């Protein structure tokens, strides 16, 4: 089993002491990447819930830079100590509550005098043990724990908030704090941090706007904060009164009566300066290692460098996505910036040139409601295990599912990232040819105030063994003013079909098939077809490519794609068909309908009849090329998931993958999955000896597994009959108009029983032999025998 597509950007990453490795929180694990190549080296596995905090133990000397130790905290309520060079788990501490953030000040302040018995951590946890369901009591707690123990008691609570907050620590380890609404709460770490009586002193800084991020200066008492309006605030000389040591208080001059410019509510700071460049909220703040510069970033996708003394600035523009974190490495010439599109860029400093990018799967695009459920935004190259996924900023990302790494990107239409931009273009579909050499996309430029609007169909081609696609052909308004509902490629030829809600489909061919040079190849229209002017909603080629199935609303039409000749029409389904798929090279065809009455149906194209159907809402259908196996991704009805007997099975999962074999309506296997809505599935057949199934969920997380193996995955124990039986039933067709027809068979049987007269032999059988209904005569042999016997006289004489 291969899992991937996890987010790299939920928590800030961390560099190793030699700056050669980058540790990244990826779900329940920590992935270790090479800073030189951007490839994953190893991973730390053991947590049972997402890892929220990662702390690399710093080296106290140059000789210790080879040491590779780190601490991790997770929502599973444990804190773990690792040697990530192995990797090896060294210690586990049970905090008994989910941990959202953690800092260990003594690792920064006194690394050379570190006493493991006095290792103190300050953690942000969520404690719901005393909170009633639905109440507004404070769930987030800032607590202090002694990591010398393996099972932690409740600990000292420093602060309570409505929800857990992220803790920020100063590079010197002297201060830590949280931002809460319009305030920054700062604690000074006591010198005897391991002592239970050594309490952390606290102060608060106030602002008029909600604060998004803040950072401590590495050497001076300076705090920088960014708010939701894009302002950057600099507080200088904070905590000289409230956080000063006893020896410092005697020499500290009182600032209560002094004019402290920019300082509000008598805060303990000498001054507060405001800078404003960002047009939206500030998410990133970090000082340079020498404290001379401040780095800030936000939704604009621009990294701004401020000179702290003068306020002058320079920029790293066009990063292309909102910024989340900026992290320095122990090597001053290397840093990293983390972006919301699930990418981590490694920067050469001070030029800020992007030297390497660690790319996860980018998140799916935000679609207008009118396109939700109608778009096909994931396609698969079955031979190489590469998926083409539509992402934000009108891109298609090529991602290797087997290696869990990005390959390339295709910019479907140009767009510069700007915060707050309205969606003006929607990429509604992406499709790949069977060999992965050709890709097709459709995009819709939305009309403005009801004026304009444009539909484009594009064909992209790649070189052999190279997944860098270049634009080959663009067709504007391929179906007049109607949108494209589906695209499908021929399995063996350079041919594709596009269907339209306007009532027609078009078959496209590459003119390289017509003795044109490859350099001049382009895609042209080969044929146009329609059926009774019905909307064409789905299409699929047969396994050998000799038959093209096109859904004309709720009717399936079969065509010869070369001659564009209608071969046959299959019976109507209950609702419009949204997906079609031939089952390998067999005669079976799978059709799926969603609204208003969901249905999964399997048709026999040789007999032109329906084999079986289920009332399931289907998100995706896939079939193996060389076998009669097919699989569907179904959304499980809420009524079925919420039943008491099924809650332990689903555990928050909203979908199921059902594996079928040919025309057998009973599934071979069923797997329950999460985030099924918007998901997709496909068989991967690059390795002929092993058939694998890939599932990409609605958040672009994925799993690749062997559907025939019991060792690589957990099969669900749900009953398939109950799964399809829980669907709501209703009247349709004739019944919806005129009601239920009487049961004529039952009535006819009752009438027959009431009219039937039992046959009884008598001395005068001809008087009763024909009594009763003519439909209930005795058998002919019995009837003739009795009749002729009645005509003969019986003789009592005995012949001697």
TrEMBL record:
Main location: nucleus
Protein name: WD repeat-containing protein 75 second beta-propeller domain-containing protein
UniProt keyword Nucleus, yes or no: yes
Ranges of residues in domain WD repeat-containing protein 75 second beta-propeller: 396-636
InterPro entries xref list: Beta-prop_WDR75_2nd, WD40/YVTN_repeat-like_dom_sf, WD40_repeat_dom_sf, WD40_rpt
Family annotation (PROSITE patterns): WD_REPEATS_2, WD_REPEATS_REGION
Organism lineage string: Eukaryota, Viridiplantae, Streptophyta, Embryophyta, Tracheophyta
Subcellular locations according to the entry: Nucleus, Nucleolus
WD repeat residue numbers: 204-235, 275-316
Organism: Brassica carinata (Ethiopian mustard)
Pfam family, one: Beta-prop_WDR75_1st
């Amino acid at each position: 089993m291969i899992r991937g597509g996890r987010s790299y950007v939920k928590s800030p990453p961390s560099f190793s002491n030699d700056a050669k490795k980058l540790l990244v929180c990826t779900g329940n694990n920590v992935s270790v990447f090479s800073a030189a190549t951007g490839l994953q080296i190893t991973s730390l596995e053991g947590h049972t819930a997402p890892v929220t905090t990662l702390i690399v133990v710093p080296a106290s000397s140059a000789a210790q830079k080879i040491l590779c130790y780190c601490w991790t905290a997770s929502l599973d309520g444990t804190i773990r100590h690792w040697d990530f060079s192995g990797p090896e788990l060294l210690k586990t501490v049970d905090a008994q509550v989910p941990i959202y953030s953690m800092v260990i000040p003594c690792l920064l302040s006194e690394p050379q005098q570190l006493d493991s018995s006095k290792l103190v951590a300050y953690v942000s946890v969520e404690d719901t043990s005393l909170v009633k369901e639905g109440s507004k009591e404070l769930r987030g707690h800032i607590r202090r724990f002694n990591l010398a123990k393996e099972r932690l008691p409740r600990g000292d609570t420093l602060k309570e908030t409505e929800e857990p907050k992220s803790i920020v620590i100063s590079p010197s380890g002297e201060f830590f704090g949280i931002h809460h609404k319009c305030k920054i709460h700062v604690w000074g770490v006591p010198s005897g941090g391991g002592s239970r009586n050594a309490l952390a002193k606290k102060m608060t800084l106030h602002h008029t706007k909600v604060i998004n991020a803040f950072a401590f200066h590495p050497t001076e008492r300076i705090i920088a904060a960014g708010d939701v309006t894009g302002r950057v605030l600099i507080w200088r000389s904070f905590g000289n009164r409230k956080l000063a040591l006893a020896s410092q208080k005697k020499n500290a001059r009182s600032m209560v009566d002094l004019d402290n410019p920019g300082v509000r509510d008598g805060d303990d700071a000498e001054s507060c300066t405001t800078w404003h460049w960002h047009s939206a909220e500030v998410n990133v703040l970090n000082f340079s290692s020498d404290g001379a510069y401040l780095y800030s970033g936000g939704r604009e996708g621009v990294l701004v460098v401020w000179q702290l003394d003068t306020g002058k600035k320079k920029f790293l523009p066009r990063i292309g996505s909102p910024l989340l974190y900026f992290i320095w490495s122990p090597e001053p010439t290397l840093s990293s910036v983390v972006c919301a599109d699930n990418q981590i860029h490694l920067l050469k400093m001070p030029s800020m040139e992007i030297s390497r990018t660690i790319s996860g799967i980018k998140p799916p695009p935000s679609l207008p409601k009118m396109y939700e459920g109608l778009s096909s935004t994931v396609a698969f190259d079955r031979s190489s295990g590469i998926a083409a996924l539509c992402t934000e900023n009108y891109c298609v990302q090529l991602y290797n599912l087997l290696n869990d790494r990005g390959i390339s990107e295709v910019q479907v239409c140009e767009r510069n990232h700007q915060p707050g931009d309205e969606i003006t273009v929607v990429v509604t579909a992406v499709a790949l040819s069977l060999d992965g050499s050709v890709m097709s996309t459709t995009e819709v430029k939305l009309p403005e105030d009801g004026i304009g609007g444009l539909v484009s169909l594009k064909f992209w081609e790649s070189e052999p063994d190279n997944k860098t696609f270049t634009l080959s052909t663009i067709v504007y308004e391929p179906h007049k003013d109607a949108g494209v509902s589906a695209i499908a490629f021929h399995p063996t030829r350079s041919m594709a079909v596009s269907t339209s809600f306007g009532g027609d489909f078009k078959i496209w061919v590459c003119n390289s098939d017509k003795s044109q040079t490859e350099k001049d190849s382009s895609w042209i229209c080969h044929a146009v077809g329609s059926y009774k002017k019905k909307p064409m909603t789905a299409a699929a080629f047969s396994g050998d490519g000799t038959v093209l199935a096109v859904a004309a609303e709720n009717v399936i039409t079969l065509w010869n794609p070369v001659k564009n000749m209608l071969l046959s029409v299959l019976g109507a389904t209950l609702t419009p068909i949204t997906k079609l798929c031939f089952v390998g090279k067999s005669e079976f065809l799978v059709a799926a309908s969603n609204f208003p009455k969901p249905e999964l149906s399997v048709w026999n194209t040789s007999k032109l009849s329906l084999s079986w159907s289920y009332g399931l809402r289907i998100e995706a259908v896939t079939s193996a090329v060389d076998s009669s196996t097919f699989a569907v991704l179904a959304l499980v009805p809420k009524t079925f998931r919420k039943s008491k007997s099924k809650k332990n099975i689903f555990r928050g999962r909203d979908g199921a993958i059902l594996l079928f074999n040919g025309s057998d309506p009973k599934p071979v296997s069923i797997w329950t999955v999460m985030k099924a809505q918007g998901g997709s599935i496909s068989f991967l057949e690059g390795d002929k000896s092993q058939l694998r199934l890939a599932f990409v969920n609605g958040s672009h997380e994925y799993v690749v597994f062997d559907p025939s193996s019991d060792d690589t995955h957990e099969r669900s124990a749900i009953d398939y009959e109950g799964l399809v039986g829980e669907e709501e039933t209703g009247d349709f067709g004739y019944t919806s108009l005129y009601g239920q027809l009487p049961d004529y068979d039952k009535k006819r049987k009752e009438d027959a029983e009431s009219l039937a007269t039992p046959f009884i032999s008598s001395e005068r059988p001809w008087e009763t032999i024909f009594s009763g209904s003519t439909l209930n005569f005795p058998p002919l042999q019995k009837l003739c025998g009795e009749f002729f016997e009645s005509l003969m006289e019986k003789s009592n004489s005995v012949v001697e």
